[in-house]
Amino acid sequence: MSKIVTLSEAASIALHGIILVAKSDKLINVVQIADATSSSKHHVAKVFQRLVKEKFVNSHRGPSGGFSLNRKPEEITLLEIYEAIEGKIELTQCPLDKQICPFDKCILNNVTKDMTIQYRDYLQGQTLDKYL
Q1: What pLDDT score was predicted for residue 99?
Q2: Neighbour-count burial of 18, counting CB atoms closer than 10 A to its CB (0-12 exposed, 13-18 middle, 19+ buried)
Q3: How do 66-69 and 57-60 pair as beta strands?
Q4: Residue 4 CA to chain centroid, in angstroms?
């Protein structure tokens, strides 16, 4: 079955995992995030390494270690998390990135650009504190 909009597993792990970290009153580790998101612990570890590097979370080592937020939940948007994993959202006129269209008018009527703007604006308006 075809999907118009998809979310990569890495982006899903980042978004859901950081909300788990924000909700927890204690450190939460890779295994707990992997279990909660039904993901590979190796993939979770890789995604969270990126979130540590981008300074969204702190990593605490040791048997009782895990992750904690580096900023207040109300200061972190879902867009920041998404773009930390996937890269900056790019707005393009053509979904195929063509410079010259063989038609006088886009047959998709720029719907993909409009969807991208709407998606980006939605993520920008969502902060972690809304999910606590």
Answers
A1: 74
A2: buried
A3: antiparallel
A4: 18
Strand segments, DSSP code E, in 66-113 are: 66-69
Q: Which residue has the tokens 């204690």?
A: 26
- In the numeric block, the tokens 């999910």 are attached to 131
CB 47 within 8 A of CB 10: yes
Tens digit of pLDDT for each residue in 49-67? 999 999 999 999 999 999 9
Those residues whose C-beta lies under 8 Å from the C-beta of residue 39, and which sit 6 or more positions away, are 9, 12, 13, 33
- pTM, to two decimals: 0.90
CA-to-CA separations, 98 to 101, 103, 108, 120, in angstroms, rounded = 7, 12, 13, 22
> Could you tell me if 37 and 19 are in contact, meaning their C-beta atoms sit under 8 angstroms apart?
no
Whether 76 has a pLDDT exceeding 80, the answer reads: yes
Closest CA to 15 of 41, 58, 44, 35: 44
Do residues 41 and 31 touch, judged by C-beta distance below 8 A?
Answer: yes
Domains recognised in the chain with CATH numbers: 9-131 (1.10.10.10)
